[in-house]
């Protein structure tokens, strides 16, 4: 083993790490998990010498790779564009402590979102609020106008106020900040959705199908609140349900886990 080989291994490991990090931040993450399952199935087929399954895999892999390149063309283009950017190195190695510090959806912000929905529901103001989780929604954020404001009930109500410039489309929330408003979301093509539902609710289901986000809607027609997650829509939820669902997002974040560990330690000390 020469120095050159060690450098080569380090470069490849770093490259794979960066690719995995990038995949986690895009909707390719779900697909990546699917591919891992397919590879697991092919490995099992190989161990048990299931020739037909192995033949199907061998003959579809080339087509599959081309299909992947076509489906993820926007993400690949974005990744290549980032490679060409000047600040690429600084994003690879997080020198800046702030950069590494992920913003988390703290309980107080959840309360703001819930209260905003309550107020809008009362006066039947239509709203579409997307809470981003692990899969980053940059491509949808770009379709709207940047806001970059701390989540407060007043700002949310103001954004969705009828006949104001920002009321149309969706708001995207990342951590404790509203990053964009008037965003255009993909409409779900789910045929089983109720025919009563219009495009606001279809858009909520649509974005939840392609990412792990949680979407809250307030109907302009009925004032009812709904929550979309993983392609499912729960209609007519109450404030308690809404708060519970949003708190689940908070519970998933590392900050909350740290808090739980800390609480556990405190219990042990006592
Ligand atoms: N693809 C989309 N992305 C983001 N927002 C959208 C999209 N399509 C529609 N909307 C929002 O939904 C509004 C139209 O809602 P529409 O009445 O069609 O839906 P709905 O599901 O019946 O909702 P409501 O119960 O509030 O009437 C638009 O004015 C716009 O703000």
Automatic annotation (TrEMBL):
The keyword Cell membrane applies. Residues 73-241 form the DAC domain. InterPro entries: C-di-AMP_synthase, CdaA, CdaA_N, DisA, DNA_integrity_DisA_N_sf, DNA_integrity_scan_DisA_N. GO terms for biological process: cAMP biosynthetic process. Its EC number is 2.7.7.85. It catalyses: 2 ATP = 3',3'-c-di-AMP + 2 diphosphate. Keywords: ATP-binding, Cell membrane, Membrane, Nucleotide-binding, Nucleotidyltransferase, Transferase, Transmembrane, Transmembrane helix. It is an enzyme of class 2 (transferase). GO terms for molecular function: adenylate cyclase activity; ATP binding; diadenylate cyclase activity. The chain crosses the membrane at residues 30-48, 54-72. Probably a homodimer. Belongs to the adenylate cyclase family. DacA/CdaA subfamily. HAMAP family: DacA. Catalyzes the condensation of 2 ATP molecules into cyclic di-AMP (c-di-AMP), a second messenger used to regulate differing processes in different bacteria. This is Diadenylate cyclase.
């Amino acid at each position: 083993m020469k120095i050159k080989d060690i450098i080569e291994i380090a470069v490849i490991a770093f490259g794979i790490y960066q690719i995995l990090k990038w995949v986690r931040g895009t909707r390719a993450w779900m697909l990546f998990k699917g591919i891992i399952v397919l590879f697991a199935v092919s490995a099992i087929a190989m161990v048990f010498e299931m020739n037909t399954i192995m033949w199907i895999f061998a003959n579809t892999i080339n087509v599959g790779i081309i299909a992947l390149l076509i489906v993820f063309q926007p993400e690949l283009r974005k990744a290549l564009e980032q490679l060409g950017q000047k600040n690429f190195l600084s994003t690879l190695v997080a020198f800046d402590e702030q950069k590494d510090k992920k913003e988390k959806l703290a309980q107080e912000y959840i309360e703001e979102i819930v209260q905003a929905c309550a107020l809008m529901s009362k006066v039947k103001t239509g709203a579409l609020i997307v809470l981003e989780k692990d899969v980053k929604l940059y491509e949808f954020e770009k379709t709207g106008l940047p806001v970059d404001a701390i989540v407060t009930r007043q700002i949310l109500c103001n954004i969705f106020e009828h006949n104001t410039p920002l009321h149309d489309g969706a708001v995207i929330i990342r951590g404790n900040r509203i990053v964009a408003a008037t965003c255009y979301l993909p409409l779900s093509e789910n045929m089983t959705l109720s025919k009563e539902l219009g495009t606001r609710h279809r858009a909520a289901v649509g974005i939840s199908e392609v990412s792990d986000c949680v979407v809250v809607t307030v109907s302009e027609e009925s004032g009812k609140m709904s929550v979309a997650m993983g392609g499912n829509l729960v209609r007519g939820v109450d404030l308690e349900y809404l708060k519970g669902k949003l708190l689940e997002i908070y519970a998933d974040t590392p900050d909350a886990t740290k808090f739980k560990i800390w609480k556990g330690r405190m219990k042990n000390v006592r």
